[in-house]
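Summary of Year 1 activities. Much of the first year was spent building the evaluation harness for sequence design. The harness presents a backbone, in tokenized form, and records the residue chosen at every position. We chose the following record to illustrate the format because it has been used consistently in internal testing since the harness was completed.
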């Protein structure tokens, strides 16, 4: 068995798919893994995948032309998952896809299709929750900032949503787990930067001038609550505990 070790990114997985496919070793004799896996397999040959624009372009073009744009979007969503086996799930899905053609999305009885749909659903669910749970604070310079700590890499999905909701605002969403942030200048396109760029490492020290508004928001939430109808189990099902450290009303 030959294991192709990919970078944990969409481009890295596409290059892994390209190398595994072009190796001509047979689909049963290859698999894809993400970097920094915890355990190595016995009697396997490990090959590091190099990311190049040529391989990304060829793989993307083949998927879009021979399958569909919808399939391309599905595997992109699956690549945002935190699960370490996502790269091989995408590879198996594409193997079945190039065999069955454009109808692959209707073949939920295939394990590969079921797994990709499961990964997509997991990513989209967390993205949907964060669209509601993300809280912004305004700095003294007028920048709206939000801190999140998602399990999946949903930063780009949130960027698309909030750029449509707040197109004329300067805002930033910072992913503490991946040390990355999306920046949106007012009336311009958003872009992503990593920790250490443009002072991003200092975000935890940034001060906002919204203490009064935070206090008012907390008071509002406490006032409208009905003590006799508190149901903490129901609350946790609608608002998981891991989101609360980033929400104003729970600080």
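For this record, the design step produced the sequence shown next.
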């Amino acid at each position: 068995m030959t294991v192709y070790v990919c970078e944990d990114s969409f481009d890295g997985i596409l290059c892994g798919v390209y190398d595994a496919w072009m190796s001509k070793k047979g689909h049963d004799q290859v698999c894809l893994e993400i970097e920094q896996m915890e355990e190595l397999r016995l009697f396997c040959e490990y090959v590091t995948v190099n990311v190049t624009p040529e391989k990304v372009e060829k793989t993307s073009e083949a998927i879009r032309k021979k399958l569909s744009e919808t399939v391309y979007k599905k595997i992109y969503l699956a690549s945002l998952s935190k699960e370490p086996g996502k790269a091989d799930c995408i590879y198996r899905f594409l193997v079945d896809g190039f065999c069955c053609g454009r109808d692959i999305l209707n073949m939920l009885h295939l394990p590969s299709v079921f797994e990709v749909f499961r990964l997509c659903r997991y990513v989209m669910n967390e993205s949907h929750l964060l669209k509601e749970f993300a809280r912004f604070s305004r700095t003294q310079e007028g920048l709206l900032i939000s801190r999140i700590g998602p399990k999946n890499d949903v930063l780009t999905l949130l960027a698309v949503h909030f750029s449509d909701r707040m197109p004329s605002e300067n805002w930033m969403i910072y992913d503490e787990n991946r040390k990355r942030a999306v920046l949106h200048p007012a009336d311009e396109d958003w872009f992503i930067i990593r920790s250490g760029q443009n002072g991003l490492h200092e975000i935890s020290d940034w001060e906002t001038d919204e203490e009064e508004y935070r206090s008012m928001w907390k008071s509002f939430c406490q006032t409208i609550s009905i003590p006799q109808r508190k149901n903490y189990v129901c609350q946790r099902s609608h608002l998981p505990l891991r989101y609360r450290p980033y929400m104003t009303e729970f600080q």
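The chain is about 45% helix and 15% strand. Quantitative recovery figures across the full test set are reported in Table 2.
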